[in-house]
Amino acid sequence: MQPRPRTIPEATVARLAVYLRVLATLADGGRSTVSSGELASAAGVNPAGLRKDLSHLGPCGVRGVGYDVDLLRDRLTRVLGVGRSRACVLVGIGNLGSALADYAGFGTRGFEFVGLFDASPARIGQRIGNLQVRGLDELEDVVAATGASIGVITTPAEVAQGICDRLAAAGVGSILNFAPVTLAAPAGVDVRKVDLSVELQVLAFLGQQRVPAEVGESA
Description:
By secondary structure, the chain is α/β, with parallel strands linked by helices.
């Protein structure tokens, strides 16, 4: 399957989302301008990398002044397509799924859960926030009725591919996968995998690498 062409590299898009989060925090704090150095530091990148990323947006800052927080925030919002609310459905109401469904921060970033689904009779009918957990037999109908464009999968690995297939067939074009398995999706459907165990293993490795230096410093 050939990926769809993108005008901005995927890695850059991920960093643009981080810049948007930082800018939102600055705006909430009453800031009107920010330097490239300050924005880069808050986002965890170097200033040259920041300027290269923002070059995809066209002219943004003013030399010696920096970036207008509100203007850059608005431009990033348009580029990332989060200026309007996007309907999402979530499948798999275990501990992780329940926590994601109940997180209010998604709403402030332009994402709204419109359907929660699980196969367990014990979970069907439960309320999380303003939504009631539904059975999987209602998945396609809810996607069609709400126009949901994003699906979040937090199911066990063995059933995740089947859920991915159903979401794609129902018209969902973007899938965020937390299940510990790589999913295959048809052309035109984007899948991003979030593997928490891999991230923890990376952190464990980095922590292990620091141990000799820390021991040496204390000697």
